[in-house]
Amino acid sequence: MSKRSDHAVRARTQREDFELGGYRIPKDWMVLWALRETNMWPASFREPSKFDPDRFGEARAEDKASEHAFVPQGVGPETGHRCPGLDYATMFMQLFAAHLVRDYELSLPEQDTSYQWKIIPPEPKAGLAFQLTRR
Ligand code: HEM
Q1: Fewer CB within 10 Å: N-end or C-end of the chain?
Q2: Which protein residue has the closest C-alpha to ligand 1 atom 26?
Q3: Is the pLDDT of residue 46 over 70?
């Protein structure tokens, strides 16, 4: 959390002072959801840095550890600020992934796949270059 003028990122600002967990958040301050910390939260995700899609499967369902465990498009009621593109984006990404794995071969050249955490959203340092070949 910081003063609006400290950031180039536009986000919501407080309409009035409030207190959370012993911290006073003054009016006009910008508040951002700490998505990285949420995704790395050990109470929700076992070995959060590991590529492990099975964590989302029915047997483990780590993303459902709490209402706020996995919230890439926000949380709360549809009448709140939750992303209205949630269903559309989910369907679109499923279609995209299905076409990608069905119609293309992917190869990942040697590169630094670690993240730049200082930007929002974080991006792979090397940009995640890969090669696509149509099947
Ligand atoms: C993978 C794709 C997407 C991601 C990760 C994403 C993520 C988000 C997030 C994190 C928020 C803020 C939620 C909050 O403050 O509680 C948001 C809000 C919003 N999103 Fe998305 N979004 C995606 C796709 C879309 C699409 C496809 C649309 C429109 C067709 C859309 C329209 C909006 C709008 C209008 C808001 C502001 C809602 C409000 O403040 O009332 N988003 N999105």
Answers
A1: C
A2: 85
A3: yes
